[in-house]
Amino acid sequence: MDETSFNISFPIDFWTRYRASLTLMHRLWGTWMAYAFFVGVPTLAFIAAYVFDWDLSEPGTFNLPGWVLLLGGYVFMFVFMPLLQMIQLWLGSRRNRTLLGTQHQSPTPEGFSASGDTFNTKLKWDAIYKAIKTKHFFFLYMSARAAFFIAKSKISGTSDMDRLRTVLKSCLNDKARLRTTSY
């Protein structure tokens, strides 16, 4: 088989897209700033309340106990944000037929192509901002916030995974940031 190209076809299901979008979201600095504010600040406030023996059961703003207001940050980041992400993906897939069905992806020496039942996209390697490998995905970024993904669970074996890494490294050079740790 040709070592300079790689072909993969896999069905895109909702949960794979959701996990990929969460992984992308957690690679943005804005997400970490939100964690610092909505989780870090309440955590520090709880620690300060414990150390300085503050009573968080007394009514405060909106006539609610202080601990309820502090828990709001945790609820926002760990319940509301993932739920909002799920709803956005679900609504997007209802309106956008390109997000459904089987995807065929091919990194070749000429560029990267992705196709499905209703679309065909071809990009030259210069259009790829960077490629990274995470614990569960390979991402090919077109910008800092948009990327194609290849789920590692859809790749048949370690030899295919090594071949994909080789193709990406040879075509993208320094733009490919692929860790060589375990798969």
Describe this structure in words.
It is a single chain. With 183 residues, the protein is α+β, with helices and mostly antiparallel strands. It has 2 domains: 8-12 and 98-177, PH-domain like (Roll); 18-97. It is 44% helix and 20% strand. It contains 4 helices and 8 strands, in the order βαααββββββαβ. The chain has helices at residues 14-25, 29-51, 66-95, 158-172; strands at residues 8-11, 102-107, 111-115, 120-124, 130-133, 137-141, 147-151, 176-177. The mean pLDDT is 88.
> Under the CATH scheme, which class of the largest domain?
Mainly Beta
Rg, nearest Å: 21 Å
> What's the total helix number?
4
Give the number of DSSP strands: 8
CATH-defined architecture of the largest domain: Roll
> What is the chain-wise order of helices and strands?
EHHHEEEEEEHE
Query: Which structural class fits the helix and strand makeup?
Result: alpha+beta
Beta fraction? 15-25%
Instruction: Enumerate the strands of the largest sheet in spatial order, edge to edge or round the barrel.
Output: 1-2-3-4
First and last CA, distance: 22 Å
What would the average pLDDT be, to the nearest integer?
A: 88
Give the biggest beta sheet: 4 strands, antiparallel
Enumerate the spans where pLDDT stays under 50 for 5 or more consecutive residues: none
- For the record, the count of structural domains works out to 2
Helix content: 40-55%
The gross shape turns out to be elongated
Q: What is the CATH topology assignment of the largest domain?
A: PH-domain like
